[in-house]
Design a protein that fits this description.
There is one protein chain. This protein is of the alpha/beta class. It is built from nine helices and eight strands. The chain has one domain: Rossmann fold. Helices cover 38% and strands 17% of the residues. It has an eight-stranded mixed β-sheet, with helices on both faces. Helix 3 packs across helix 9 and helix 4 crosses helix 5.
């Protein structure tokens, strides 16, 4: 490869990486807006030029327990976790959530896993402790990694319980999903991971829940659907093998999104939050 060709490949990889970290705008329905109106709304400054919209839903009955932190997925928003908010507040637990940068009501055009980890830590620092965390998809992986010592500033997240719903266990699943959606060959993953390393200082292995499985909370719930077309069920099995004490809730025919509304999942989350 000539010097010019190498430069073109580098520029193309950098442009591809920008696409990789640019979410599609999430839908906002009347239901989303109605749920947002029932929350105590706020803003939290995460770092220079970055702030996120926050939501705090109070429980239906008085409670002295700290809220459960909810973390939405890629190209989503906090109010897309409506069924979980309703189930937990009915069970007497408050819910704290935020829209990640470039998602929902938070400004921005791009975001990344490290930035969302910083958001998690900043929101908890601003609102006080949480004793359980629930994360969906990309947000689940970010939540899990936030419990480990990371290059990002701030102490690791602390809570006694974590629920991961349809969450990838490594960056490989997210990269494959992006490339497949973009109609690009899977071997372009090497280019993306090279930009991640050279441009941002992270190895792909820095985004692997199995590597930090022993740092995840003692009460660990893993919910995943066998027919998830976006994150393979094998990701859940891989993490469960590393944490045999975890509860693995295996559903079928729900896919990547309907699992958020499934009664068995909501019941398991309620049990986790009450324990």
């Amino acid at each position: 490869m000539s010097e010019g060709q190498a430069s073109d490949r580098h520029d193309d990889s950098a442009a591809l990486f920008e696409r990789y970290r640019t979410p599609a705008p999430p839908d906002s329905t009347d239901g989303d807006r109605a749920l947002a109106e029932t929350a105590e709304r706020g803003r939290v400054a995460v770092e220079a030029g970055v702030e996120v919209a926050t939501y705090l839903w109070r429980p239906d009955a008085a409670s002295t327990r700290p809220p459960v932190l909810l973390v939405h997925g890629w190209s989503s928003r906090a109010t897309h976790l409506a069924a979980i908010v309703r189930a937990l507040t009915r069970a007497g637990r408050g819910c704290l959530a935020f829209d990640a940068p470039a998602h929902g009501d938070s400004p921005g055009t791009v975001t990344s896993m490290p930035q969302v980890i910083r958001c998690l830590r900043a929101v908890v620092a601003a609102h006080g402790p949480v004793d359980a965390v629930v994360g969906h998809s990309f947000g689940g992986m970010a939540a899990g990694l936030a419990f480990a010592q990371r290059p990002e500033p701030g102490p690791p997240l602390a809570a006694g319980a974590l629920a991961l719903i349809a969450a990838p266990s490594s960056i490989d699943s997210m990269t494959r999903r992006f490339l497949a959606t973009a109609g690009l060959p899977l071997d372009r993953a090497a280019d993306l991971h090279r930009v991640l390393k050279d441009g941002h200082g992270y190895d792909a292995g820095d985004f692997d829940l199995v590597r930090v499985a022993d740092r995840l909370p003692p009460r660990l719930l893993i919910c995943h659907d066998a027919d998830d077309p976006e994150v393979p069920f094998a990701d859940a099995q891989r993490l469960a093998a590393a944490r045999p004490d975890a509860e693995l809730l295996h559903t079928e025919r729900l896919g990547h999104l309907r699992i958020l509304f499934a009664r068995p999942v909501l019941a398991a989350l309620t049990r986790l939050a009450r324990s």
